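Late entry, evening session. Most of the bench is empty. Finally got around to the prediction I had been postponing all week. Sequence below, unchanged from the version circulated by S.P.
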Amino acid sequence: GEVLKNLNKFYKRKEIQRLGAENGLDARLFHQAFISFRKYIMESNSVSADLHIILNDICCDAGKICLLGHVDDLFPFFLRHAKQIFPMLDCMDDLRKISDLRLPPNWYPEARAIQRKIIFHSGPTNSGKTYHAIQRFLSAKSGIYCGPLKLLAHEIFQKSNDANVPCDLVTGEERVYANEDARQAAHIACTIEMCSTNTPYEVAVIDEIQMIRDPARGWAWTRALLGLCAEEIHVCGEAAAIELVTELMFTTGEEVEVRNYERLTPLTVLDYALESLDNLRPGDCIVCFSKNDIYSVSRQIEARGLECAVIYGSLPPGTKLEQAKKFNDPADPCKILVATDAIGMGLNLCIKRIIFNSIMKPSTNEKGEKEIDLITTSQALQISGRAGRFGSSFKQGEVTTMHRDDLPQLKEILSETVQPVKAAGLHPTAEQIEMFAYHLPDATLSNLIDIFVSLSQVDGLYFVCNIDDFKFLADMIQHIPLNLRSRYVFCTAPLNRKEPFVCTTLLKVSYFLLFRKCGIYIGLSHTKWPLGPPKNIKELMHLEAVHDVFDLYLWLSYRFMDMFPDAALVRDIQKKLDDIIQIGVCNITKLIRASQPTAASGATLTTSEEFPPSRTKRDPGLASDLQGAKPPGQPLKSVEAPGERRGKSLKAHRSARREDLRIHGHGSLADRLLREGLLTQEMLRQLQSEWQGQHRNGRYGPSSKRIDQNSSKEMGKKKK
């Protein structure tokens, strides 16, 4: 007990904390080191003789005037223990230098060696800003286009070659040469992660520059903006990014010329909501923010005898293009589009009216945490701007919502100015991690990344991108003996960690890489190819995952060419798979009907008109929560009247929504749905009536007796 008392006294001394900081132990590391040190002393059967003597002196002389020992004497032993559990303390100065991210422009000496001209094309969607940048790209002797999506890169690739300007296509999974002899063309259209910072160009185009703030991919725009070796760099995007780009270019000694553009066609926010799918017109696009809503809405539309096209993010690019072509074709009976915000960029669509099925969207914050919040002004403008596109058959665009209550909030969102982009993303490079590994040879890749981020220093213009996906893959393949560079490349693979099938494929492939060869037979055996058309939604989702597996093989084939020799064969198989997925999407309502009896399926849907798709979620706890809900006649105290909620400012409303989710996230589901406006009192009354009726019929076993008693009391109150 005396030892523990003195150890805690040692931990609280300011002088000891200061000494720890001088030796590289910040508050977090100091605390972790002390916990380990205390555990070592208290739980060890024996300690070293010199530490035993110091502890003996401290404890035996406690309270005496002539002290032989003092708690401060423990510091050398504490520091020695800390260095055993945190090896980087021995080389902290070197590690701090490696992880110093305060001057990213200096990482690109080739770009700093030339004087670049920066031209910012600023404007909303459908203003012609990218068109003017591309015209300069086509007229240049050499050029590179950097876009956020494969679809955009492919569009510029086609436009260039159609204009007799030979242009290559470079994406993570594909290389297409304009010249038959596979000689590199002077023009390249690529996804932004694939741009070269060593090749000189006359003109470079960086599209959607506002994505420099993206928590996951922002580093790619920062790298392109600071590192491209081009005489002219044309940057296209929202006006919200002008200030940040100007400040970043000030640090490189380069000036920014801003060219502003106005929207080419008018866009009107309607004064009325759609309210019913019976009011749909040709050229309408219903925007949903979840797959389940996509499935539900599309089925309700086809139940009315209308045909609709479907586009969402996880569909292969070829399927998206086919669905867009079907919707755009005047001769095709399909005149309605149901889509996610994937239509916000990369597809040219003939849309007359955008209808937001919901204005609540799941998102990931800077810490990698999932949130549900109102869509941002930037997102709303990007999606709304797809209506009435210049050059389409519709000369004017319209925007509204599915539900009447959402319309005032949408108007307020669209009327706000877009929040300025405040910082640009950064990501540790393979070279930086290798230098860390030199000093910390026994650390895992996940630990190296953690240490790098904890020691990294950035100024106010930058932030370190979210690395959770990278660490997830690093931990997953840690037990496989790969060299550090190969391990790093595997961890940057563009896959969705929520797809277990794709993740297990990466694990299997990384294992086979030890044998120096990974032929197509591995992918075929794992995916059980050949596959037939899907019979339900679950099978369609599996086919999409298989497509991602083939994408992964192609991505790896360009980084380990000798180990993945069957890229051409995989590409042929992928084209066949794309056709199969298209068949499934074209028959999506049949797949939904086939999925409904399967309660275990993640795609099981509720499509009743009484429960709008964007406002209901299947939850097994709904019935039990309704038992504890307040009677219909008693309004919840914290539920605001619609007029009061509309009167709030948008900022306050967002704050209230987040607070409700935080407070009531684990409470009664009925209360939570009422607070969020997802359930009305009338719906609650009907659900309670149905639930009580089911219990009276004995459908839920012995527990129904207690419910019936409660119901009888409730009925008695109502009669009185």
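Two things to note before I forget:
The first strand starts at residue 117 and ends at 122.
Confidence is low (pLDDT under 50) at residues 598-648, 659-667, 699-720.
Will write this up properly tomorrow.
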